[in-house]
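Researcher: We're reviewing a set of sequences before deciding which ones to prioritize for further study. For each one, I'd like a predicted 3D structure that I can look through quickly. This is Sodium:proton antiporter. If possible, include the structure in token form so it fits the rest of the review sheet.
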Amino acid sequence: MEEHASVVSLAIVVICAFLTPILLHRFRLRVIPVVVAEIIVGLIIGKSGFDLVQQDMWLETLSTLGFIFLMFLSGVEIDFSAFTGSKQKEQLSNGKKAPNTFAVSSLIFGGVFILSLILSYLFVWMGFIDNAFLMTLIISTISLGVVVPTLKDRQIMKTNIGQIILLVAVIADLVTMILLAVFASLHEGGGGSMWLLLILFGAGIVLYVFGNYFKKRSFVESLSTGTIQIGTRAIFTLIIVLVGLSESIGAENILGAFLAGVLVSLLSPNHDMVQKLDSFGYGFLIPIFFVMVGVELNLGEMLSDSKVIILIPLLVVALLISKIIPVYLLKKWYDTKTVFAAGFLLTSTLSLVIAAAKVGENLGVIDQKMSGALILVAVISSIISPILFAKLFRNPSSENPTVRVKLIGANQLTLPVTKELSPHVYDVTLFHPAQEKVEDETSSSLFDIVEIESYDIGELKKQDVFDTDILVVTSGNEERNADIALYAKEIGVERVIARIETPTLQDKVRDHDVDVFSVLTSTTSLMKALIESPSLIGILTNRDTALYQIDVHNPKYMNIPLRKFPFTGDVIFVRIFRGNESLIPHGDTELLRDDRIIVTGSTEYVEELKRTLQFGKSRSIEKPEL
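Model: Here's the predicted structure for Sodium:proton antiporter, in token form for your review sheet.
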């Protein structure tokens, strides 16, 4: 009977997690993040509401796994190129040069931690808590579980301001996680076991070297398909090993999970692997964790204590002060609304506050009511901060959205392409060694070419060539092209195109998701097509009837049937590629995120549709009704 009850409770939680995003979409509550809505639903069905869920081993295990997987995915989300400051020369829409993301983020967190320490001593002085160190960790931490989904929803994860917000949250979580482990060691073992944390980080380094060695072995690719899926097995093994090791040395399990995510990010997994992990985490385990956070809170019991009632608003104010004042440093580069929006989003605290409250309660530093109050404040901050962020934030890069394309090697192939690509959509830069002569001297003066000393990877890094969305490598040496392309994929360039003629070398780079261009293959395919399908070539080469690919990223147009799509202009939808599927569009077909649609129509309207669907920004062109 008890087992039956546990399954019923699990079913209630899973059903609520399933229905929550549907209800948000149905009632157009886009300002509320899904994770926050899940906590609210948990409050309704839990101890504070109808008390429909009974805590048991099933829910406790799945909730803990959700928490661990959330921390793991937060580590995976880190863009380590931001730590190198490679995006320092990026131009903002207001004309200013973007700041060095790592330097600014470190300064902001330094300010956050100092203010948190001062505010913590005020809480100790007022008699709310006895331990200033624990309160400092609680005030200074920032929830990656709220920040990451919010940045993803606004499509700003890779922008300069998005990376600054993410890095502040990452630094805050990493520092506070380590300090929380130190805090637990000090109170449990008198400080003697703190050195054991070095074992965890040492194991992380060993596993990174091990993983980096084996991911390049040819047999790994053959074991990554079918029923074996060795890559997925390796990742879950990494998580469990580091979580187990973390708990064994007396640290928090989330420290091991976060470290596992960082290692996976450093090893540069392919896009499909990250999508699988996201789908599993955000589709199953993580929603259970957030619903259970709400289920376990007992508002009635907490609010019966007058001390707790006074503490809650004071702590919310402390969270705001500790984040907004340091973030005001960004006013040098961004407008006031953007700065305050960033400050409000960084006010969100959830995962580590829950962990710190539980650790403090287990160690006897705080009682159960105080622990519940801290978690409630974290929930309140997670509810209000994304809403305030959504109200204030305006994407500074959305006015002139462009895809950065960098081409290595100026020749008869690349020079015409720089003029053919639309400047409204693509920001094209061409790199060529100064000592080499461009193939067509009479045309070279017509093109904007950045001169480099050589094709050496060190020189290319110095010129920020790898800081791009699309990299095209077309030097005169195909082996050099392959080396540059493989290095670019290794450091995380999303799309790389390389000119390679040798079939064996083509196969080698294709195994690393590099797109291959071959003059011989292209010429042969073109001649064959001219013989077999001359009309098709006409469609592909005629400007008025050409086919174009548009990637769907704008969340505003998700799940809208094409018959109700508010913008087509002089454009026809020809095909929709969704994952490995190829769909013929009709009136009831709904667009989904990451769809790749093939369209034909006038260049003006195609460019407008590309800006609308890829970037969420369109200029006023009269659009006829469907």
